[in-house]
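for the record, two folds in this file. i put them one after another cuz i was lazy. first one right below, seq on top, C-alpha cells after. the second one comes after a little note so u can tell where it starts
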Amino acid sequence: METINTPITTKKHRYIFIDVLRGLAVLWMIETHVVDATLYNSFKQGLIYYLLDLSNGFVAVSFLFFAGSGFWIAATRKAESYRKFETPLWQYLKRLVLILLLAYWLHMPAMSFRVFPNLNMQSWLKFFECDVLQTIVYSSLIALIFLLLIKNLKLLKYFYGLIALAIFLIAPFVWDTELIKYLPIFFATLFSKYPISKFPLFPWSGYFFAGIFISGLFFESKNKERLARVFTIAGILSLIILYYTWQSTQFYPGYQDWWHISPFHSFFRTSFVVALFGLFFLLEEKYKETLFGKALTLAGQESLFIYIFQTDLKNICKRK
C-alpha cells in the first residue's frame, strides 16, 4: 500500500528509516491505547506518567506524517503514470478504497448491515467518525488531485507545505464552527472536533501534508546528511522553544485549547517528528541490520494490518 507501506527506495540507495519510523509509530500506538485503557487512574499522575502522556501526543502525528512521506515517494516514482491515467493510478485508487472500507468497517455498529436502517444519530456519528485511516485516505486524494494538476514537482512540494500551514492556521476557526448543524452527517464528521471525530481533517491532515513537504525537501537534497542534521537540530530547538513559550502564543484564536488545536501546538508536534526524521536517517547504518531495526522495518511495511489489530485490541480493552 503506497500511502502507508511503500518501500523506501531510490535508484542508488534504499532508505529504510521511513519504514522504521512508521513501524515505531504504529507500535507506539498500541502502547498508547493499551495503557490508556488498562492503567488505573491512581497511576495516572506524576512526572513519569506526564512524560508518557506527552509522548503519546506524537503517535498519530507520526503515523500521518510518514504516510505523507510514503505518498511523496510514490508520487516521484509514478507521477507520469498517474497523469496519463495508466494502471498504477487505478491500482493506487483501489488501495485507497480498500483502506477506506477497512476504516469504516472498524466503526461498524454490528456485524450485520441489517442494523443500519434502525441506527440512531449517535450510532451514525460513530460509524462516520473521521479516524486516522479516513484522514490518510482523504488527504491522499486531495494530494493526488494537485499532483495531477501541477506537473512541476519542485514547485508542488512547496504547495503541499503551504497547504499544511493553512490547515494548521485555519483549524481553530473550523473547530469554532458547529458544522454538524449545517452539513450532512458524513461531511460534518470530516471536520467536526472531538467527541464527534477524534482525527478530523483540521488539523490532522496538516501533518500528512507536512510529511510530504519535508520528504520532498529531503529526497531532492544533494546533501541529505547535512539536511538531516538541520532537521534534527532545528526540530529539537523548535520543540523546546514552543513548549516553554506556549503561554505567550495565547493571542491566536483557539488558545483556550492549545494542546489540541492551536497552530503553535501543531508546529510543536511537527517539530518533534521532523527531528525524528533527521535523527533516524543519521543513525540508519547503526540500527538497520540489528534485530531492533529489522523488527521495526517489518512493522512499518505491515503498518496497516498492525493498525487494524491494535484498533481491535483497543476495543477489547475498553470492553474489559
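(here's the note) second protein begins now
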Amino acid sequence: MLYPTSIMIRPIITRTWLACLVGALLILGEHSHSMGADPNEYILSNGMKVLLIEVPKAPVATVQVWYKVGSRNEVMGRAGLSHMLEHMMFKGTARYPKGSFSRIIRKNGGVDNAFTGQDFTAYFENVAADRVSLALELEADRMQGLLLDQSEFQTERDVVKEERRMRSEDDPQGALVEALFAQVFMSHPYHWPVIGWFADLDAMAIEDLQRHYDTFYSPNNATLIVVGDIKADSLLPVIKRLFEPIPRGPSPKQILPPEPEQRGERRFLLKREAQVPFVMMGFRIPNYSSDDSYALDLLESILSQGKSSRLYQNLVYEQKVALAVGAEYSLLQTDPGLFYFYGLVNPGAKVDAVEEALLREVTRLQNEPPSELELQRAKNQVEASRVFGQDSNFRHAMLMGQAETVGAGWRRINQFVERIRAVTAQDIQRVAKLYLTPDNRTTGILIPLPPKPLESSPSATHDGKP
C-alpha cells in the first residue's frame, strides 16, 4: 500500500492518536481537488524543500514538516531514538515553553500531532487557512530552538515505555509483527521496532537526543508541505522569512550495506498470553525503485483487500479456519522491505490448516495468473484508494511527504495510477514466482498461553490483620 504501515503516533493526553487523525480529517472536510495537480516546488537558500498545493475548496489547510530521520537512522543499542525525540519536540523552546505549542494550535481551532516511521519523522498542524502563518512560525521555532531538559526526558521516557507495553508487550499480535521484522532483517535497521526496545530506552541519555537533533533536524534535511486554501505566491515570502534564517546543518549520508540474501526459510514460535493462535508469513521484496513494486501492490490487493479477496474467501468464508486475514506491503520505503500476510486462527481450527491454506493461495498465484476480472477489480481498488488519498488535504500532504522523504519524489505519486494500470496478469504471476518463494519466506506462529493466575492479596492471607 502507499501509506506507511509501521508508524508510531505521538499520544496526546485526553485523546488517542486514532481520534486525533479522525479529527484531522474532519476539520479538513475531505475536500476534493484535481488528481495529479503538480505542487509549487521551491528550494530555499538553506536547502529546505517546500511544496505548496493550492486547494481553494474550503478555508482550511494542513502544514506538515517531514524530516529524513526514522528508526532506519539509529544504531544498535539506541533503538527508538527517533521516536523518543519526536516526543521531546513538544517540550518547548525559549520562545514557546513547555505546553505552549499544542495549546496555541488548539486555541486557534486547529489540531496538531506527529508520527515516526522507519524512514521519517513528521509533524503536522491542521488549521484554518488564515492560521497557516502561525503554524509555520511554531515549526520554524522548534526546528532550531528545542530545549532538552533532563527531568522532562525522564518523564517522557516512562510515557514511551508504557506505550511500548500497550503496543507490543500486551498485544500478542503486535509482538509477533515485531518478532517477524527482527527475524527477517538480521543486519539492516529495519530489524528493530520504531518504538525501540526496553533496554535501549533505559540506556538512552539526553546527550543521545541532542546529537540526533543536531544531526537530523536541519532545513536541508526537511521538506515543508502546505496543502489547502492558500496562495503560493503570497505564502512563499512568509516561509522564507521564517525558515531561511535557520542555517544549514550537516548533510547526513547513511549508506547501509544491503541485507544479506536469505538462503532458506526461517521459522519461529512466539509464546504469549493470547486467546487464539496467529500465523504470519513474510517475504523480502523491493521498494519503489523496482518496476515490480506496482505488481506487488496489486498482488496485495488480490490477496487481501475486501471480502472478495482470495484470502478472505478461502480461509474465512469457505474453510472457516481463520477469523481474520490480511496482507501488508508499502512500496514507499527507503530500502527494500517486507511483504507479509497473516491469519488469525479460528477457535477449534488447527494452526497447520491456516498455514497450509495461506501457502495454497501463494501456489495458486504462481501456477495461474489472476483472471482479467479479478485484476481489474484490484486495479479499481488501488486506484480508488489513490483518489481518496488525493481527496483530503491531510492525506495528500502525507503521501507527498512520504514520497519525498524516502527518496521517491512527489512526481512518482502522480505516475502511480498510470503504472498500476499497465500491470498485467502475467506480471502478478511473475512476481509471485520471483519473491514468494520458500527460501525467501519467514514464518512466525503465535502460540497462546493461558492467563497467569492472579496473586492473592496480603489482606486475604492475613485475615485483614496488620
